[in-house]
Amino acid sequence: MVIEIRVLYNERIYIYLLTIIISLFSFQIKTTQKVFICKSTSSKRYHYKKTCRGLNRCKAEIKETTLKKAEKFGRTLCKLENK
User: Fold this and answer.
1) Which residues cross the membrane (predicted)?
2) Are 35 and 48 in contact (CB under 8 A)?
3) Is residue 37 within 8 Å of residue 5, measured between CB atoms?
4) Torsion over CA of 42, 46, 54 and 50, rounded to 10 degrees?
5) What confidence score (pLDDT) does residue 34 get?
């Protein structure tokens, strides 16, 4: 019975640590992943590719930024790239 409890305890620790590692990796991606946005005041999307069709209509400057900053300002992924 004691052995079984230790195994369950070790599995919980392993799962907890794995969750922390995945969270940190996700945070790292958001702070370094580069995306493109249209600097128009009506623009609401970000794009992984500068050549995305969704950016064709942009009459303002196309700017490279981080995923974290784009999401901070309420941008969401372009529906054309979200397939």
Assistant:
1) 12-29
2) yes
3) no
4) 120
5) 94
Say how far residue 56 (Cα) sits from the centre of its chain.
23
- Least Cα distance to 36 among 74, 65, 78, 69 occurs for 65
Nearest Cα to 34, choosing from 47, 25, 22?
A: 47
What percent of the chain is helix, strand and coil (3-state, nearest 5)?
Answer: 50, 20, 35
pLDDT of residue 2: 46
Q: What is the mean pLDDT of residues 7-23?
A: 68
Q: Give how far the C-alpha of residue 42 lies from the chain's centroid of Cα atoms, to the nearest Å.
A: 22
CA distances from residue 11 to 3, 8, 22, 61 in whole angstroms, order as listed: 12, 5, 16, 51
